[in-house]
Amino acid sequence: MTRYVISKCGNILDSEDILQNIYARFFSRIKKKGYSDIESAEAFLINIAKFECKNYFGILKKKNKTSSFSDYSEEQMVEIEAEMSRGDKNLEDVLCNELLARQIFDDITSGDPEIGKIFYMHFALDMKLDQIAAELEMNLSSVKNKLYRTIERQKRKFNI
Length: 160
Fold this sequence. Notes:
Helix content is 76%, strand content 0%. By secondary structure, it is mainly alpha-helical. It folds into two domains: 2-88, no CATH class; 111-157. The radius of gyration is 22 Å and the shape is elongated. The two termini are 33 Å apart.
């Protein structure tokens, strides 16, 4: 991780700050949501590192054409830190949402094949429920019940 970050920024002081952010973000993520959904900690950390490097120096390039934090005054650093802590989506949230969506989809498709078809046709193919009922030769009320009951079950199961 250290080699990757240093190769991206070229400044030891900046790389130490970035590494600290990476591990703090990783620890915070594990503390908040656990680690059972993380298939590879190394891959997860590398993705956080990519985001942190991009974020760290993307903000710098917007401010000035400077390539190192050591060139900034204390006031500029406070401003940069405030901008970095805005409520924008960060990589860990995006990854968590993607993993959660994958887990939900796997759970739905592993059960009743009709429910998997209903979800696929409704959410992936953007079909209306009456179209799905006609295509699967089912009652509209059956399609609605299966869809909405499964949604509620997934909400409870995954604490959504």
